[in-house]
Automatic annotation (TrEMBL):
This is Gluconolactonase. SUPFAM superfamilies: Calcium-dependent phosphotriesterase. Pfam families: SGL. Residues 12-254 form the SMP-30/Gluconolactonase/LRE-like region domain. Keywords: Metal-binding, Zinc. Binds 1 divalent metal cation per subunit. The active site is at D196. Substrate binds at R98, N100, D118.
Amino acid sequence: MVDLLLDAGALLGESPRWSVQEQRLYWVDIEGRNIHRTDPATGRDEVMGLDVQVGCIAPRAGGGLVAALEDGCALIDSWGAVPRPFGPAALAAMPEQRFNDGCVDAMGRLWVGSLTRDKANPQAALYRLDPAGSLTEIFGGLTTSNGAAFSPDGRIFYHADTPTHAVRAYDVDAAAGTLGKGRIFHQFEMGNGRPDGAAVDAEGCYWSALWEGWRIVRLSPAGELLQTVELPVQRPTMIAFGGEDFKTAFVTSAGKNLSEEERAAQPHAGGVFTFRVDVPGLAQPAFGA
């Protein structure tokens, strides 16, 4: 059973991250330029406004957040603090791009990708932000970097360039912070939803939110479809696991650019939804800076 946790009305809700210490869900509204902190127990939602779009966030080991903003990354030392630029402004000279989806590996590094508004020219890329502040391009040729997640043992990295409808898997050299050659993990059919944000559970299964697909799917470590969770919104964007037992799934969604008919069919588009799962998710590593 899928429940509405928060009727947030987000333009482009994304990047849900569960805080074990606070027992709260952090997430962003990219186009609303906001970071949210939601308490599932009370329904209270706090909002931190920014001057720029924020593609994704992750907790930091020393407290606060790391955030991938429009053209570069930043550190947020505490709730409400002004973001401090961190690392190079890699996209400053590329106004058609912005940072998008990302996740942190077991070594405390943020793997974050960009997207380009010019879909005819795949110039977006996947990067690795190290705790010392260096930013390394891992590979390019993308239009919409998404679906970043690691297997429980950290040996496989999952990634989707959303318009291709494919999730790819890469072998990881954790010490070097590099990836091997990619392979197709799962190819979704065209026209029935595209892979957006994702998370991996304790059994190593990959959960993908399907943009325009009205659903979340669970794929086995071999890429086989195991489970489908239908949602009351057309554009789910990302899934995260939390709660005391990590068996509560949280799903963000987008509510922008809907016609009157579409809005009537999904009045809670842009909301945050929850459902229970049988296999728990995993606590996410914190960024090392």
